[in-house]
Amino acid sequence: MSNIAFVRKKEIAPSPPPITEVGIIGWIKQNLFSGWWNSFLTLFCLYFLFMLAAEFFPWAWGGHWHTKSLRECLDLDPNVACFSVLTARWKQLLFGLYPAEEYWRPTLTFFLLILSIIPILFPRFIRFFWFSLIYPGLALWLLWGGSFWSVAIVYIGMSLGVASYFLLNQRLIKSSPMALLLALFLTVIFFLFISDGMADLLGDLVPLSLPFVESLKFGGFTLSLIVGVTGIVASFPIGILLALGRQSKNLPLVKMICVGFIEFIRGVPLITLLFVASVLLNYFLPPGTNFDIVLRVIIMVTLFSAAYMAEVIRGGLAGVTIGQHEASASLGLTYWQSQRLIIMPQALKISIPGIVNTFIGLFKDTTLVSIISLRDPVGLASTIRADAKWNGIYWELYIAIGLMFFIFCFGMSKYSQYLEKKLKTDN
Amino acid sequence: MSELDEKKKIDRTKVNLTEEVVIHISEMNKWFGSFHVLRDINLEVRRGERIVVCGPSGSGKSTLIRCINRLEEHQKGKIIVDGTELTTDLKNIDKIRSEVGMVFQHFNLFPHLTTLENCTLAPVWVRETPKLEAEEIAMEMLEKVKIPEQAHKFPGQLSGGQQQRVAIARSLCMKPRIMLFDEVTSALDPEMIKEVLDTMIQLAEEGMTMICVTHEMGFARQVADRVIFMDDGQIVEQNEPESFFNDPKSDRTKLFLSQILGH
User: Fold this and answer.
1) What is the pTM of this model?
2) What is the interface pTM, i.e. ipTM, of the complex?
3) How far apart are CA B227 and CA B238, in angstroms?
């Protein structure tokens, strides 16, 4: 019988791993050439990438930028790109038929957009959130023009409503639903009888207006961004409410309406909804009503993506355990408090990938408006080709349009990854 | 557990067990669908009383204490907590819930908030305590459960025992008049059970009204004023711990005790 007892007397000093297993060499060996099949795939992919680059780069690099027409490009060198179409028509791709002397307005709106979403994206700038709140009105006025006061009056009316609610709630009436109703009533009164006169009066006192630009002049990426951003911002809260409604146990009627809405909208192609917006709606509205076409499209796109959003968020809600509901209830939080402070933060965190997926989908779906003859970038590509000078040009236009969409969508995707990482609280 | 058995019973002299009834349950019945889970429950709890509820699984003990803060709705009978009857009135329910603390088997801490935020959330939103004051109270409570150093960590970074103590601190921050404990040690590793039980014993010594559903019989012996044995949705036997453990009256209690203490 051998003696199995053992006591170590000397520690084994740590030594570095073999050179072939660490660093760049180690990584290459592990990831690219770990076996014959993996090595074959690596070489095949490298060959494929090389072939692609060998075709693409000479074509793009030597491209013409300053010719007058496609014909001229082909005469110079038919084997390289003809980016001249972008040089000649980039303004149209960005602004559609927007009057050239007013280009500064969409441009300014775009830069203000970036400023206004910073407080929402990065909590560290939350003290500038007031700007995000006034931005929609400002953008509306800058883009469409008209009197400044006709937009400002909406803000004034809403502030009055909110102020009267708080005043009533704190000073005069104990029950808050009553105060809410009264404040709503006052706001409605204001908008029905006072707002128009007041806007006119203010307009006379301080004339502040921009030339009006009608919706049909809008186009290009300006249009995509207007529809996309508004749709994204509006569909998010609607989606949350729909998801909560669908989850509701105590309000069967609300639940039925939410389920019906979601299933109906999801079951119908977006193009159908857009046709309804552009053509059919006119039959139902009283003759002579001017219901802005861009607004109609925004509403349809918003409802469409709200239905998807609701289902994505419902998935997130299902991921929050029943224990969280019970814990927040047992502490005495009301339904809305617990939704806002406990349930939604967790549900939304779970659904971030799905939410961003829906956002990206919505943004790209805005190109479908070309079907109802609005001039989004894809629609403009056909318009540009209709010009005899650029007849027959495809690649250069679509590459440029694709690149623009890619930048925005990739940005959203990157932000969602950053957010997921930031909100990770467990180890 | 045997270690707890050997310990002396807690010092009751500090505690003034009053005659004031804080929970009054009479002829209470509950059904899950057509399944009769609680049958004719009658129970009075006095202020400062510590009650341990035990019984086989599925006997309705958890359901009973969950009825007290209306996480479950009862269908017949009366429950009066601290002078307020539990009805469908949401205002009453929220009021009672803010007075009655509850600790769960699976902790149910809010994973997206730090320990401190877990503790301050309800005081700030329900009691409308100023944030700084709420944080002071929270730190005080975290010190009481002996983990003030974890205040800025997230629940996911704590051990099970630590999480459960945070959950207790979170309830205490609402300054509840009654605490409900629903099998709070059942999901813990053996070495963590003690730290949670110690916290509960400390609370008992301070005179908190407590109802504990638990299988920790050592804890029951040491802390309880009354042990309630439930089976099939009924209260089968209740007695002082001494008599309950040494001289059980009903056969079902005897069987249960022999099974739980027999190994």
Assistant:
1) 0.85
2) 0.89
3) 6
